[in-house]
Design goal:
- The protein folds into 2 domains: 84 residues, no CATH class; 64 residues, Arc Repressor Mutant, subunit A.
- Helices cover 39% and strands 14% of the residues.
- It has 7 helices and 7 strands; from the N terminus they run βββαααββββαααα.
- It has a 3-stranded antiparallel β-sheet with strand order 1-2-3.
- A hairpin with a 2-residue loop joins strand 6 and strand 7.
- Helix 1 packs across helix 3 and helix 5 packs across helix 6.
- The longest helix is centred in the C-terminal third of the chain and has 14 residues.
- The chain starts with 26 loop residues before the first strand and ends with a helix.
């Protein structure tokens, strides 16, 4: 049998930012080593320790950290040294590895859809946003999506009760969430949430 298909699409797996020798973008990467949160960075195909960041790049992250008063309030209770605070901030804000550089041409990217755990402390910070199609999810949106993703056992009434609204108000919130995320169903929303690393 001859395959006359004209579908010759070239499917590519997205490359990790900073992984190729000529890639000048910087990709931050959060890892846990023996329970300690550490941040590494990749550029030009090489991986480095956070302490080896060029001063200009470190200062960029430090400035973002110091402007985020909620992050400073939380992290300064964990670490007394500013350099350790800045590294932990980078871990929570840009710790996921993806194809979009976290720093490109001296510009810091917005926070990533990275949560260390569901109730991640970074969700309460000023500069941390979780998004779907550039729509910034509210804390209530995130709870709704998490509960939808947990199991089909959570019927709408249970989720409505969990977020403290009536069933009819929950239906309105759900429709708005579908609209804001360019989806039309729970299944489509969850698929998009998974693809964009929200869940």
């Amino acid at each position: 049998m001859i395959n006359n298909s004209k579908n010759n699409q070239n499917f590519r797996t997205p490359q990790i930012a900073g992984m190729l020798p000529g890639d000048s973008g910087i990709e931050l990467m959060g890892i846990k080593v023996k329970g300690k949160k550490t941040t590494l960075w990749m550029q030009h195909g090489n991986t480095h320790y956070f302490t080896d960041l060029p001063a200009k790049i470190y200062n960029l992250i430090k400035t973002a950290y110091l402007l985020d008063h909620k992050a400073v309030d939380f992290i300064s209770k964990i670490h007394s040294e500013l350099k350790d605070q800045v590294e932990l901030y980078a871990y929570y804000m840009w710790g996921d590895v993806d194809a979009t550089p976290d720093i490109l041409n001296g510009v810091l990217a917005p926070s990533e859809n990275f949560r260390e755990k569901r109730d991640c402390p970074s969700l309460r910070w000023n500069a941390k946003n979780i998004t779907i199609d550039n729509y910034i999810l509210t804390p209530r949106d995130i709870v709704m999506i998490d509960m939808m993703a947990d199991s089909n056992d959570y019927i709408d009434g249970v989720i409505a009760e969990a977020i403290g609204v009536s069933h009819s108000h929950y239906d309105t919130l759900k429709r708005k969430l579908f609209t804001y995320t360019n989806t039309r169903s729970k299944h489509a929303l969850l698929l998009k949430a998974k693809t964009q690393k929200v869940i």
